[in-house]
Design goal:
Structural class of chain A: alpha/beta
Oligomer: heterodimer
Helix content of chain A: 25-40%
Distance between the termini of chain B: 34 Å
Radius of gyration of chain A: 24 Å
Structural class of chain B: alpha/beta
Radius of gyration of chain B: 23 Å
């Protein structure tokens, strides 16, 4: 599970605040996987480290022992080259109006980012202000109406206006999606201006010191980082103070924008006066990792060409800084247990002696914690024919620290996977309940979202708030999430076993169903990403 | 399997398989080897982070096999106080006779030997030459007979008498550690080792000297040790021996001639005092044995120990293909995997064994059987309760095996149990075809032997294609980067697992515990039950 703050810093995501005894053989098997993957010896399995590579070898060996066949092009591993991108120096921005040069101070008025990840990215142009930069026809929102942004630098507010449907809100919480709208309209680059709402959460002063924190990216086959695809990249972040300078002399006054935001009125848009020249220099460092892929071939001559992908990221965040106490982030819950469950689902298929009708790919992902990179890479370059993936079931950090009563299945309400999930849950005496914390935006914070973006019906199965759940989950998130204390002792193995059984049954049901999963007609994400059945 | 050279015994030393659609059990074995022998594990060298990962892997697999932790204190891991030690400098060795003092020349006459417990050994004491320094109750050979060595330094030839019947016994008694232990028991304060005839031919002084500061590994008894201690602090060439003997009643040339002829050696005080210093650099190394137990039923207070070392030799010289990772697929990922699969088989069978079974993955084998030696000396179950050890080390699973060599089988009734269990699996047990390789003292069952436990180490035999395949592996892949997973025939791997399961089952369920053969040399080492 990636950090919301990480996302906020690196990509300017975010909108809303985040607020043993005798055991069965199955429990023992689950425990064994976690014991190994979350041992101190594996030092937190950070993508790009040898520790991760060893976890990968373990996953491959266990997939083998579960009767799977290698599912990557060559063997078990799908190589993923990752690039760490970092501003090489502070960006230089020059704002000119006629002969006047208006100085913009780095760290006060703005800071620069990695733009599109190339070593040098220069943008020069007039500035157009596009409000939140959102286009949502169903909601009659088009911030680009009557606004010519061709060849210009588009300034937009971070976040979203209040009152959007939550899926739309979630979708636009990814500023890159907004940058894509600007690119589609011919913009040269995007600068983000902190909204007041954002300032209350993560003030510019707090974020600015992290300006040169690296952004992780995966490489395209041509060796370029994937960020290169951003044709109108986000080149920097502007404070409210900087915004005043940008807006000075224009028809739109910055104060009008602020007032409109406060009143939740439509934000005025239009051209700003002056030309902005920017220079961005980026240093990059490449490193190697891989996804681990196991294949269980389907039995139905026709349906076996369709693939259900069961995924779980195997990476975690490694060893922390400092020199006192426990520095190893074991990631037992995040996501050693998810991998254990995935492996035991594979074993359950093996033991059942009955192959599923559709083929199943078991996918242990790298670099989730750096921003869902392994899954993005896989969905872009799958080891099987594109279009043959019919569903994704993702397991990421199921909080299994208490007796399980119900489940939250992110994405279930969006596709025909939902009814399957409900039926299986009912059979197993488990309730499926709505996400109790939509403000955490878990929907875009785990790997199934990469599948969603590829148009594939996807769910992420989490444990629910019922019984002791709400309290236990809060406690885990507050005390152990991304901390050295995320260790094996937290896990309730009985719950883990129940959870595994559920995952097996759901995977089995999806793989064996007569119909291929489809998005609900008109579903926002299904439509946005051109998914099967949405239109 | 450790190198003969490393152990330096005194006696003369020493095809890819087509893809198969494997059964689940064979695949499970393959998965262990795939992980343990992966390049990511960097050859599992003692003291490395990768070996610590291997420990965790094995512990996890033991959990999955339904074992209980038995490394002590509820843990799977038994910490082994490993130390790496080496000679820090040339030290000194002066022979004093009356008023004269003869300093021996380092590198020509002697070199100082490292010590794992004492950074500085400084001794000054009269010297007594005690032949091979061997005391053997079974043959009655006693090199200390009639000699008082209390408070003295003993000089010994680094060998054992050729008159000893058992080559295994000879290999054992010629170990410097054993010679030093005997000396300590007799009250000596130090030992000077002298190159003998055999040693001179196998590994001459000049070669030994070239390795003078090479690190060795062992486990530390710690400074609080109460056991008598007589460090073997120096190693003498023929030239050095001549200087040591000069002026005494004993003539070195006569001693050497008797050694060559295999005749009794003259012994006695040399009438000289040696002043010697040997300095060592000692470094602690982290390492653990991994131990799980499957509890038995009516005889559960007795333990059958199955062992396999999981360390290998790490990263080293690249081969012609540029591969520098010594994966150790056969040595001994395969043995470790087989041990884990034997444990799983007990779990799958559901019928508990009568005796408890200890599954011991031992560390630091390649550096001198150190993990097993520590375990045997510091068992995590009551001393004397381990009734047998079956050790799995480097089964050469590259061919359809027809027979089995059970090293050590001829010393105890374990041999008969093994033979019967193997017969039930259609496999004969045959004598060791290469006794000159001294496998008896080159693998971990020897540590248990020394602790008085009837033990065998199982290797695949020479029958059918075996002789050629074994030789091929030893010549081309043993301790080479090419000891990789592709060599293994998994059908044979599974047969090997089944065989070991049958053996473990037979040992654990037998009505009587195994006994040493009556009068067997090793049986007399410890006061364990012997046959009538």
């Amino acid at each position: 599970m990636i950090r919301i703050i990480h996302a906020a810093l690196a990509l300017f995501f975010v909108a809303a605040p985040a607020a043993a005894s005798d055991v069965t053989e199955e429990q023992i098997a689950l425990k064994a996987h976690v014991q190994f993957l979350a041992s101190d010896a594996l030092r937190g399995r950070e993508a790009g480290t040898r520790d991760f590579d060893i976890a990968a070898e373990y996953m491959a060996a266990q997939m083998m022992a579960s009767g799977l066949k290698p599912g990557a092009e060559k063997g078990w591993f799908q190589p993923v080259t990752l690039t760490s991108l970092k501003p090489a120096e502070k960006g230089v921005w020059t704002l000119t109006r006629g002969d006047a040069v208006i100085p913009l101070q780095f760290g006060m008025d703005f800071f620069s980012t990695i733009a599109n990840g190339t070593s040098e990215f220069n943008a020069q142009g007039k500035i157009a202000f596009a409000g939140y930069g959102i286009v949502h026809p169903e909601g009659k929102i088009d911030d680009y109406r009557d606004l010519d942004v061709r060849g210009k630098i588009v300034a937009i507010l971070t976040g979203t206006p209040q009152g959007l449907p939550s899926d739309v809100d979630t979708y636009f919480s990814d500023e890159d999606q907004k940058a894509r709208l600007a690119a589609a309209r011919g913009a040269r680059a995007v600068i983000l201006i902190e909204s007041e709402r954002r300032r209350q959460l993560y003030p510019f002063d707090v974020i600015a010191p992290y300006w040169n924190r690296p952004t992780e990216s995966w490489d395209q086959p041509d060796g370029q980082p994937s960020t290169i695809a951003n044709r109108a990249p986000i080149i920097g972040y502007v404070s409210a103070i900087g915004a005043e300078k940008l807006f000075a002399g224009s028809k739109i006054k910055w104060i009008d924008v602020v007032v409109a935001e406060r009143k939740q009125a439509r934000i005025p848009t239009g051209q700003l006066i002056g030309t902005l020249s920017t220079e961005t220099k980026v240093a990059s460092k490449k490193y190697q990792s891989h996804n681990i892929i196991g294949l269980l071939e389907g039995s139905d001559p026709r349906l076996k060409k369709e693939y259900v992908v069961l995924s779980a990221h195997v990476d975690h965040i490694g060893v922390g800084h400092g020199d006192k106490g426990d520095r190893i982030h074991n990631g037992a819950m995040d996501n050693a247990i998810g991998n254990a469950v995935m492996l035991q689902v594979a074993k359950a298929f093996h033991k059942s002696g009955k192959a599923p009708r559709r083929s199943i790919l078991f996918l242990a992902l790298t670099a989730e914690e750096q921003g869902l990179l392994g899954s993005e890479f896989f969905t872009r370059y799958p080891s099987i024919p594109k279009g043959s993936i019919v569903a994704n079931i993702n397991i990421d950090m199921p909080i299994l620290s208490y007796p399980l009563e119900d489940l939250v299945v992110l994405g279930a309400e969006r596709s025909s996977l939902g009814p399957i999930v409900d039926r299986v849950a009912a059979e197993q005496g488990l309730a499926v309940v709505p996400d109790p914390t939509p403000e955490e935006m878990f929907f875009v914070r785990s790997d199934h979202y990469s599948f969603v973006k590829a148009g594939i019906p996807a769910i992420s199965i989490d444990t629910g708030p019922g019984g002791a759940g709400a309290v236990a989950q809060r406690e885990f998130l507050d005390k152990h999430y991304h901390k050295a204390s995320d260790e094996i002792g937290l896990i309730d193995w009985k719950s883990a076993e129940r959870f595994t059984r559920f995952n097996y049954a759901v995977t089995r049901a999806i793989a064996d169903a007569d119909e291929r999963p489809r998005w609900n007609k008109g579903d926002f994400f299904g439509t946005a990403f051109d998914g099967y059945g949405a239109k | 399997m450790i190198r003969a050279l490393l152990l330096a015994t005194t006696l003369l030393a020493a095809t890819p398989v087509a893809a198969q659609d494997l059964s689940p059990d064979a695949t499970a074995l393959k998965a262990h080897v795939a992980f343990l022998a992966s390049d990511a594990m960097q050859g599992r060298k003692t003291g490395t982070a990768e070996l610590a990962i291997a420990e965790q892997y094995i512990a996890a697999q033991m959990i999955a096999a339904g074992l209980k932790p038995a490394g002590g204190n509820g843990s799977w891991l038994q910490p082994v106080p490993l130390v790496s030690f080496q000679s820090a400098d040339h030290g000194s060795l002066i022979v004093k006779r009356g008023a004269s003092a003869t300093p021996l020349e380092w590198g020509v006459d002697y070199f100082a030997r490292g010590n794992p417990d004492q950074a500085r050994v400084a001794l000054s004491a009269p010297v007594v030459f005690v032949g091979y320094g061997v005391v053997d109750k079974t043959s009655g050979h006693d090199d200390y007979k009639g000699l008082d060595v209390r408070g003295k330094i003993v000089a010994v030839i680094r060998d054992a008498p050729r008159t000893l019947q058992s080559s295994d016994a000879r290999a054992h008694l010629s170990q410097p550690d054993v010679q030093a232990q005997t000396a300590a028991e007799k009250g000596a304060v130090g030992v000077i080792l002298i190159e003998g005839d055999t040693r001179n031919r196998v590994f001459p002084f000049a070669a030994a000297k070239a390795r003078w500061d090479r690190p060795s590994m062992t486990w530390s008894h710690g400074t609080a040790s109460t056991t008598p201690n007589a460090p073997a602090f120096a190693y003498l060439s023929f030239a050095g021996a001549k200087k040591l003997f000069a002026g005494s009643k004993l003539n070195w040339d006569n001693v050497l001639a008797a050694d060559r002829a295999g005749k009794p050696l003259p012994r006695g005080p040399l009438g000289a005092t040696v002043d010697a210093v040997a300095n060592s650099t000692i470094t602690k190394v982290a390492g653990n044995n991994v131990v799980g137990v499957l509890e038995g039923t009516d005889l559960k207070n007795e333990y059958v120990a199955i062992s396999a070392h999981f360390d290998h030799v790490g990263v080293g010289e690249p081969n012609e293909q540029g591969d520098a990772i010594y994966n150790g697929a056969l040595d001994n990922a395969a043995g470790t995997g087989a041990m884990l699969e034997v444990a799983k088989r007990f779990q799958a069978e559901g019928k508990k064994p009568r005796r408890s079974i200890l599954f011991i993955a031992v560390t630091a084998e390649e550096v001198g059987l150190v993990g097993s030696d520590y375990y045997a000396a510091n068992p995590t179950v009551p001393k004397g309760s381990i009734v047998a050890n079956v050790n799995l080390d480097m089964p050469i699973l590259t061919f359809p095996f027809e027979d089995l060599v059970a090293i050590g089988a001829d010393h105890s009734s374990v041999g008969q149990v093994v033979a019967a269990a193997a017969a039930s699996e259609g496999v004969k047990v045959v004598p060791d075809p290469t006794p000159e390789e001294n496998f008896f003292v080159r693998t971990d069952h020897y540590s248990f032997v020394k602790a008085g436990v009837p033990s065998v180490s199982l290797d695949l035999g020479p029958g059918g294609p075996g002789a050629a395949a074994n030789k091929d592996f030893i010549d081309k892949h043993y301790h080479q980067p090419s000891d990789e997973i592709g060599l293994i025939d998994w059908t044979q791997g599974l047969r090997f697992v089944k065989l070991n399961y049958a053996i473990a089952r037979a040992l654990a369920d037998a009505d009587t515990r195994p006994v040493w053969n009556k009068g067997d040399f090793f049986g007399t080492l410890a006061k364990e039950p012997t046959g009538k």
